[in-house]
Amino acid sequence: MNLIFLNSLEKKVEENQVKTAQVSICEQQGAWHVLWNEANEDGELVQTNWFEGTQWDVMLQVFRERLQEKIRDGYVPLLE
């Protein structure tokens, strides 16, 4: 799988604690994958597949919509 894009995000959960996550766009044999990685309460990494398919424009739409949901939930990208 070829990593095309990766960004880390943080969400303040308590006064001095943050929850971290990563969103990535990958390509494998012509198929696009958008993945969300986040640690659960036990500290285990949970990967959610937001998109898998061959259409670039649909992949970007899903990526933008889902990322906006996470930003509304309090996540802030480490790089704009």
Write the layout of secondary structure elements.
Layout: E1 2-14, E2 17-28, E3 31-39, E4 45-53, H1 56-72, E5 76-77
Antiparallel strand pairs: 1-2, 1-5, 2-3, 3-4
The best one-word shape is elongated
Per DSSP, what share of the residues sits in E-state strands of 2 or more residues?
over 45%
- For the termini, the CA-CA separation is 25 Å
Number of helices: 1
Count of beta strands:
5
Rg, rounded, reads 13 Å
Strand sequence of the main sheet, in spatial order? 4-3-2-1-5
Quaternary form: single chain
- Structural category is alpha+beta
Low-pLDDT runs: none
Average pLDDT over all residues? 94
Q: Strand-and-helix sequence, N→C?
A: EEEEHE
Helix content: 10-25%
Sheet with most strands? 5 strands, antiparallel
Structure write-up:
There is one protein chain. This protein is of the alpha+beta class. It has one helix spanning 56-72, and strands at residues 2-14, 17-28, 31-39, 45-53, 76-77. Strands 4-3-2-1-5 form a five-stranded antiparallel sheet, with helices on one face. Strand 3 (31-39) and strand 4 form a beta hairpin. It is elongated, with a radius of gyration of 13 Å. The model has no long low-confidence stretch (mean pLDDT 94).
